[in-house]
Amino acid sequence: MSKPVDVVLIGGGIMSATLGTLLKELQPDWKIVVYERLSEVAQESSNAWNNAGTGHAALCELNYMPEGADGSVDAAKAVQINEQFQQSRQLWSTLIEQGVLDAPSTFINATPHMTFVRGEKDVAYLKKRYEELKKQPLFAGIEYSEDSRVINQWAPLLMQKRLKGEPFAATRVPAGTDVDFGALTRQLFADLKSKGVEVVTDREVRKLRKRADGTWRVTWRNAIGRTPGETSARFVFVGAGGWALKLLQSSGIPEISGYGVFPIGGQFLKTSNPAIVAQHKAKVYSQASVGAPPMSVPHLDTRVVDGEASLLFGPFATFSPKFLKKGRITDIVAQVRPGNIGPMLKVAVTNFDLVKYLVGELAKTHRKKVDSLRVFMPTAKDEDWTLIQAGQRAQVMKKDPQKGGVLQFGTEVISSADGSIAGLLGASPGASTAVSIMLGLLKTCFPERIEGWEPRLRQLIPSYGETLNPRPEAAAATLSKTAEVLALNV
To answer: Which InterPro entries would you find in this protein's record (predicted)?
Structure first.
């Protein structure tokens, strides 16, 4: 048996790249190996065209701050998401200063975040949300308007030929961002390779088994030639998107029992017409339709990928039994186990609105999809927009003591009791909060080392171990510093 490596990272996305970067900074002597089943890294959910690239900071996403049954709004979740994104910004800033990452414009660009709603009920809600958020230091600079002239200055495409007399309102945070997580992921892996990390593509991990000595046998095969092999590892992280469930199930850890995933795909309308793109520099989110999952909140986004600006609108939900865009059609049935079939059936029974929504989305023609865009952009023309296929998301289904089973939107880390293996399930706001998620994993899986790592973690992420929002001066200073390093003040 070969000598065990210290860490195996499964999946070539932003999660593995972030964890590998942190571990290499904290333990430069550790042997780390990365396995990616495709021929390149960052080809699934981290790819720029497979996600919205919003840089989720809860500046514009209404689902992080829903209205309560009594009409109240609570900023706690929005503040938490923003705190997490600030940790990402701090780490990226440090890595730029260290020369690990390229020029900021290669992966992040200043793009105002807006929310736009119509109708008296949603206008009243947005006003309440604004009143609550403007009190929060991390949301400093948020603006609100019901004036068409002001909103026209912010985002002209929203106002052109809009019907008079319709109640509408918008909020705007100039300090928002657009992030190319594909470019960021590739840069992080390139640096890891330069530091001795073995990044192996075209290698599919098939099975995980724990040995008697506590190490993990990672069984794999090469995509080219189907040559099998195995690696022994002291710690395994499964950052394989929807396939994380399959691999964690193969590991036999009891913590994965009761979990399943429901795959949801997405499409976006895209235009690169310079005349249209020039009129819109913002990410504009609105309310999700009834029955739609939070990941399907409609938004009209500026995207900057490889230096080229374009606009995306969507997403429009699609359905595929695959857990990854390049997965297998048997994925959805291969996940079934005695421990999760009950929760999954309960989810199916109690989420009829979601099924109805998916059927409606699948039935939409190109014209109907552009009609949805015209709610945002009244002047949209069918011929200016083309449909692109986005990534595949695997939403978490799990046991619930009261309901039997629930469909959960968000991300969740599953780890073994001894901390020798962990994996990530779920979707948004994953990529934007990857740093925070991986910091939590370090505490859970390496409790005996975390105290010794903390001085270096504070160098990488100055606010590590603290929250910014309760400290207005610290929040303002951090926002200003990262904006300067990331060139977001330009």
So the answer is: FAD/NAD-bd_sf, MQO
Residue 490 placed within a domain? no
Query: How many domains would you assign to the chain?
Result: 1
Q: Which amino acid is at 266?
A: G
Does 251 map to a domain? yes
Contact, 471 vs 477, CB < 8 A? no
Q: Which two tokens stand for residue 183?
A: 């470019």
Q: Exposed, middle or buried by CB within 10 Å (0-12, 13-18, 19+), for 100?
A: buried
75 within a domain of the structure (yes/no): yes
CB 392 within 8 Å of CB 242: yes
The residue length of the chain stands at 490
Per residue, the 3-state secondary structure of 229-297, as one string, reads EEEEEEEEEECCCCHHHHHHHHHCCHHHCCCEEEEEEEEEEEECCHHHHCCCCCEEECCCCCCCCHHHC
User: Tell me: the pLDDT tens digits for 263-292?
Assistant: 888 899 999 999 999 999 999 999 876 656
Q: 328 lies in which domain range?
A: 5-485
Q: Are 184 and 154 in contact (CB under 8 A)?
A: no
Residue 291 inside a domain? The answer is: yes
Q: For residue 462, is the peptide bond before it cis, meaning its omega torsion is within 30 degrees of 0?
A: no
Q: What CATH number corresponds to the domain at position 429?
A: 3.50.50.60
Residue-wise pLDDT tens digits, 91-139:
999 999 999 999 999 999 999 999 999 999 999 999 999 999 999 999 9
- The tokens describing 185, both together, are 């992921």
Round to whole Å and give the CA distance between 114 and 86.
Answer: 19
